[in-house]
Amino acid sequence: MMSPLNMLAPVNGSLDVINDNTPYFRCFDENVLAFIESLSNELLKNSEAKTYPELVALGFWLRKSNLKKMQSLSPTGVIKPLGWVVHFTPSNVDTMFIYSWICSLLMGNHNVIRVATKSSDIKDCLLNILNLLFAKPEFVQIGQHNLFVHYDKHSAYSAELSLICDVRVIWGGDDSVNAIRNLPCKPRCRDISFADRYSACVINGQQLTTENIPQLAESLWQDTQPHGQLACSSPRLVYWLGDSILQLELFRQLNQVAKQSGHKINSLNDHLVTSQLLKSTAKADAPIIQSAIGVIPVTEFDENWLDWHLGGGYFLLLPINSLDDLASASSAKLQTLTYWGIERETLIKFAQQPSIQGIDRIVPIGRALDFSPAWDGYQLLTMLSRGVEVK
User: Fold this and answer.
1) Which residues is 63 bridged to in the sheet?
2) Torsion sign over Cα 102, 108, 114, 119
3) CA–CA dist 71, 65 (Å, integer)
4) Alpha carbons 14 and 138: distance in angstroms, whole number
5) pLDDT digits (tens, 9 = 90+) for 80-131
6) pLDDT digit string, tens, across residues 210-224
7) Eight-class DSSP state of 315
8) In sequence order, what are the residues at sequence separation of 6 or more whose Cβ sits closer than 8 angstroms to the Cβ of residue 178?
9) Which residues of 343-368 are buried (b: 16+ CB within 10 A; e: fewer)?
10) 144 and 13 in contact (C-beta within 8 Å)?
11) What distance, in Å, lies between the first and last C-alpha atoms of the chain?
């Protein structure tokens, strides 16, 4: 007997619509844009949503001005939707499923979003807002063809949906991604996989002064706090370039920012355990900060150590002499590199090095979690549509 499927939004939705042959939306359809604008407004004015920084950030990302920018970056020519897209979402980031869904919706696709098992107040707030909007007469059709569901991950629903969808967007660890990809699907089904990644930042100590440390500390915490530092783009490793005279002062101020933000020191035991494990490798020194945040210097980086990293504001600190050291140390799993105190032209030359296998994004510190349709090396608006050649 198949485990039950819970329809989270719209509450009266049904998987039967997958076979109803309703035409897909046009790319950047006016009614879809009106719906997204309403979603943005609701996230920015809803009293409960405003208590969650992640939902406020999502509301700003969905603003009309950003949608216009996205449209300018979308593929040109005769572009059409692919069909039904199934999104298998991550459990560690409450709002990530919205971003890939919005990209798919903008390109005219119908969607099924399998929301992860782990419950959260943020997720519940978001789903309540979606149900509110889907109930409006002008958005009923959008709701009928954009289904947010939950079912046990061992259920046969994943196999059933894989057989009838045109695209699978898969978020999760390597094992979870491979489990979905191994399920039979249509011959032309596209898989867009977001597997295990980690991120880092590089700070040029030569540019640090007592005057600019406070703003840098705020920006670094802005990349760390949301989702408990468990988002793939949140930095866990700090590459320190050059002068370290003000290094400790930066982390002291970062620790103070964490305390002032209401960050609870409930990760201290996790930090202590991680520190002990790292020190047992003989490649880590004693932590230089062990409070609201944790900072432990290491002599090299092993990505297997990420299995010990439980988030909560914990940083591995690795000194480097040049960006070439970073290039040789990075792996294909390195997703986002945030930076401070380094010229953009220098970073462009660095990114062009053939030896670099990873690093899909290089953005200033403070913008690590700014989602873009260019994510993990994918151009999502292109991947979620098809072009018709006309000569």
Assistant:
1) none
2) positive
3) 10
4) 19
5) 999 999 999 887 777 877 999 999 999 999 999 999 867 788 999 999 999 9
6) 999 999 999 999 999
7) E
8) none
9) eeeebeebeeeeebebbbbbbebbeb
10) yes
11) 52
179 neighbors 361 (Cβ within 8 angstroms): no
User: How many alpha carbons fall within 13 Å on the CB side of residue 252?
Assistant: 5
pLDDT(2) > 60: no
Confirm if 192 and 214 have CB atoms less than 8 A apart.
no
Percentage above 70 pLDDT, the chain:
97
* Domains in the chain: ranges and CATH: 6-196+376-388 (3.40.605.10), 198-364 (3.40.309.10)
Phi, psi (degrees; rounded to nearest 5) at 45 = -115, -20
Q: How many helices (H) and strands (E) does the chain have?
A: 14, 17
For CA atoms 286, 287, 288, 291, give the dihedral sign. negative
Is there a contact between 224 and 207 (Cβ–Cβ < 8 Å)? no
